């Protein structure tokens, strides 16, 4: 099977170890969107051993904590769909009441236009996630 997450990082790698990686996605409308991607190719969470599943969800939690501290979103959405890329991964998505689709999911039709100035401000803020995510994950798992 040709899997994009087996072939490519899926974004800018912020932290990685032998089991998983956390990437900052390059999503123009969603500055700060991160993915937590399991390293081995498995399609479903239930394919993981209990300790691996716990490790993955701990990483998701660490990313959410960093995101809340740095970006201060109104809400953080967590999504694990895998319909287009059947490789276990979680989207950690900062949501703001004035983002283009709030309160609907980010995949819903656009509700409003967000100014380029606002998106640029959020992109600049999102660069601070690099260190914050590393810090959170290193506290729990140690340096890779």
Give a written overview of the molecule.
Helix 2 (50-71) packs antiparallel against helix 4. By secondary structure, the chain is an alpha+beta fold. The protein has a single domain, classed as 2-Layer Sandwich (HIT family, subunit A). The two termini are 29 Å apart. Strand 1 and strand 2 form a beta hairpin. The protein has helices spanning 4-7, 50-71, 116-126, 129-141, and strands spanning 12-16, 20-24, 34-38, 75-79, 89-95. The protein is 35% helix and 19% strand. The protein is built from four helices and five strands. A five-stranded antiparallel beta sheet has the order 1-2-3-5-4, covered by helices on one side.
SSE layout and pairings?
Blueprint: H1 4-7, E1 12-16, E2 20-24, E3 34-38, H2 50-71, E4 75-79, E5 89-95, H3 116-126, H4 129-141
Antiparallel strand pairs: 1-2, 2-3, 3-5, 4-5
Helix pairs in contact: 2-4
Order of adjacent strands in the largest pleated sheet = 1-2-3-5-4
Percent in helix: 25-40%
Radius of gyration: 15 Å
Number of helices: 4
Low-pLDDT windows of residues: none
Q: Averaging pLDDT over every residue, what do you get? A: 96
How many distinct beta strands?
5
Termini separation? 29 Å
CATH hierarchy, class: Alpha Beta
Please report which band the strand proportion falls in: under 5%, 5-15%, 15-25%, 25-35%, 35-45% or over 45%.
Answer: 15-25%
Look at the structure and name the CATH superfamily.
Answer: HIT-like
């Amino acid at each position: 099977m040709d899997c994009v997450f087996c072939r490519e990082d899926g974004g800018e790698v912020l932290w990685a170890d032998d089991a998983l990686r956390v990437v900052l996605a390059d999503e123009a409308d969603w500055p700060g969107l991160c993915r937590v991607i399991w390293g081995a190719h498995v399609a479903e969470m239930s394919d993981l051993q209990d300790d691996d599943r716990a490790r993955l969800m701990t990483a998701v939690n660490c990313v959410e904590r960093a995101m809340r501290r740095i970006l201060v979103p109104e809400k953080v959405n967590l999504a694990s769909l895998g319909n287009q890329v059947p490789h276990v991964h979680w989207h950690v998505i900062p949501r703001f009441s004035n983002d283009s689709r709030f309160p609907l999911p980010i995949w819903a039709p656009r509700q409003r236009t967000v100014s380029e100035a606002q998106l640029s401000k959020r992109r600049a803020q999102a660069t601070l996630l690099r260190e914050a995510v590393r810090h959170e994950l290193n506290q729990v798992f140690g340096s890779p």
